[in-house]
Design goal:
The complex is a heterodimer. Chain A has one domain. Helices cover 58% and strands 0% of the residues of chain A. In chain B, β1 and β2 form a beta hairpin. Chain B is elongated. Helix content of chain B is 66%, strand content 7%. Chain B is built from seven helices and three strands; from the N terminus they run αααααααβββ. Chain B folds into two domains: 45 residues; 140 residues, no CATH class. In chain B, α5 packs antiparallel against α6. Classes of the chains: A mainly alpha, B mainly alpha. At the A-B interface, α1, α5 and α7 of A face α1, α2, α3, α6 and α7 of B.
Chain lengths: 154, 253
């Protein structure tokens, strides 16, 4: 009986903590600005590639994230906030046009190698977002297109 | 005697209170399931409210998205035209490919000693990769980041400063990745870093004698350059697998 009581108390305390942390605000990654430096605006990829990039990459690597309801609950929201900040530091499609040519080129190279090696999109992301998985056929298309784009940047 | 009775009375009242608390707790036990449900509902309401608040100032955003979606839906014809254009462009661009990516150093006129720590750290990375030694390579990257910190760029002016800043930004990122990546990724970033350091030498000069080498098999057969302090070819892209693949393209100083 005592053990049960203790467990119940612990459960209640955890529940209280869970409720309290819901009130701690997080910054949502949602920009209202017109994205003149956006990758898709700047380079105008074919529509199927643009759509794929938006679905598979833009949630973390841009200034706009689509948040399903479960991503608004703490502590998931915290984890995501950190994760997205890191991702944007590495590569931000919303500001890609603002990068120096040198940086653009090295980023394009990294994008190709990440997609080729199946490192991006992350497995932990594609588990929840099945539509973010890039098929081999689409992968080839994207890589060829980016490869060509890379050669146009001086 | 009175005091004893008083104490008895007090004791009774306390007992009563304790009993009532017991009953209250029993009630709570019965209610606990209900309470948990209520809390859960409260939680949902709280999160919903938060969304409501968050959404209000961001109506502009949702409108924007709507507009975007609209465009996506309606501009098929335009988009397709653009795609076709892109394809055409791509072909012409393909033809220009060869002149790109492999910059050669204009013989540096300035014997600049200030770049030496940066170049030495770069060579440390290079030698780490020649030995296929991940941790030695990572140490070189740390040394490179330190060397960049120690470089005095206040003497650079105008365009030189701007170009150096761009090189610095990119080279730093490569070094940060080399610090924490497995060896194959270290090699990928080293390729980009080599371009950066080569361009930096072309921009600022060096007092060191260096050799610009080229391996046609590196970078998945696209070919890649690197800088070396020795005339003998020691390949950082393959290490012992293909130690002597490559040739000297240029000698600096």
């Amino acid at each position: 009986m005592n053990k049960r009581k203790i467990l119940k108390k612990i459960g209640l305390i955890l529940l209280l903590i869970f409720i309290v942390i819901q009130f701690i605000p997080t910054n949502r990654n949602l920009s209202t600005q017109v994205l003149k430096d956006d990758f898709i605006t700047t380079f105008n990829p074919p529509k199927n590639i643009a759509t794929k990039l938006k679905i598979s990459c833009y949630d973390c690597h841009s200034n706009n994230t689509y948040y399903p309801w479960y991503n608004k609950i703490q502590p998931i929201a915290w984890f995501l906030e950190n994760h997205i900040n890191e991702a944007k530091k590495e590569l931000n499609f919303s500001e890609f046009g603002n990068y120096s040519n040198r940086r653009q080129k090295s980023k394009l190279k990294s994008i190709i190698s990440q997609i080729k090696d199946n490192e991006m999109p992350l497995k932990s992301y594609t588990i929840m977002h099945k539509d973010a998985i890039i098929t081999d056929k689409r992968k080839k298309q994207i890589i060829i297109w980016i490869e060509n784009l890379k050669h146009t940047i001086k | 005697m009175q005091s004893v009775e008083e104490n008895k009375n007090k004791y009774k009242t306390i007992k009563n209170e304790i009993q009532s608390i017991h009953e209250f707790l029993k009630n709570i036990k019965l209610m606990s399931k209900k309470i948990i449900y209520v809390l859960a509902i409260a939680l949902l309401i709280v999160t919903a409210c938060k969304d409501g608040k968050k959404n209000k100032p961001e109506t502009d955003h949702s409108k924007m998205e709507m507009k975007k979606d609209h465009n996506d839906g309606h501009d098929h014809s335009k988009m397709e035209k653009k795609n076709n254009d892109d394809h055409n462009h791509d072909h012409s661009k393909m033809e220009n490919k060869t002149s790109h990516d492999s910059k050669t150093i204009e013989q540096s006129k300035v014997k600049n000693p200030a770049t030496t720590p940066i170049i030495n750290a770069y060579l440390q990375i290079k030698n780490g990769l020649v030995a296929t030694d991940k941790s030695a390579t990572a140490k070189g990257a740390t040394a490179l980041l330190t060397a960049f910190k120690g470089f005095d760029m206040s003497k650079l002016s105008g365009n030189t400063h701007k170009e150096y800043m761009e090189i610095l930004e990119n080279a730093k990122e490569q070094a940060e990745h080399i610090e924490k990546s497995p060896i194959d990724h270290q090699r990928e970033h080293f390729e980009v870093l080599s371009t950066d350091i080569t361009d930096m030498i072309a921009l600022l000069g060096t007092e060191k004698t260096l050799y610009q080498d080229h391996c046609p098999m590196a970078s998945n057969g696209k070919g890649a350059n690197w800088l070396s302090e020795t005339k003998e070819i020691k390949n950082p892209y393959f290490g012992s697998k293909m130690m002597h693949c490559g040739s000297v393209k240029k000698q600096i100083n």
